[in-house]
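Backbone-to-sequence.
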């Protein structure tokens, strides 16, 4: 793991944060790398205890799995809230990078719970952006513009 992490950072630069699993060996590798100035993302986090151990080992990011936790009848969003609270109370600099989402609401819920970042699929991103009232509003703005100015664009009006 150390050799692979060093190779990745060597190839892609210091803004690369290799993903290391939250295991006994992974935590030791994280400590080793972080002591040498490497950024590390601890992945496959399912509990606040794992996140705390990762932060204490020097992880830059912890990646709790939200939907995977929920599928195991655990509270993925609640785990993120617990992690955020522990990190804040302990003055830990480690950031939360939530992953494994099935719904847009999960993304919003972890943000409210204190998550700084999330990895999300394009379909979840579309769900977060889209809203029928937004679409209706835009169509209304376009109709109002057409009624007031016809096919003239704002740029054409400003250049006059």
């Amino acid at each position: 793991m150390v050799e692979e992490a060093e190779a990745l950072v060597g190839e892609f630069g210091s803004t690369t944060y290799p993903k290391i699993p939250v295991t006994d060996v992974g935590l030791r590798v994280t400590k080793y790398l972080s002591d040498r100035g490497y950024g590390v993302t601890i992945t496959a986090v399912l509990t606040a205890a794992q996140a705390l151990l990762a932060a204490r080992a020097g992880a830059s990011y912890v990646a709790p799995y939200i939907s995977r936790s929920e599928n195991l009848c655990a509270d993925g969003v609640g785990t993120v809230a617990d992690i955020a609270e522990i990190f804040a109370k302990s003055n830990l600099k480690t950031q939360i990078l939530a992953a494994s989402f099935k719904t847009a609401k999960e993304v919003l819920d972890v943000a409210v719970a204190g998550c700084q970042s999330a990895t999300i699929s394009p379909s979840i991103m579309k769900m977060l952006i889209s809203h029928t009232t937004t679409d209706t509003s835009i169509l209304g703005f376009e109709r109002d513009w057409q009624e007031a100015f016809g096919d003239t664009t704002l740029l054409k009006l400003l250049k006059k």
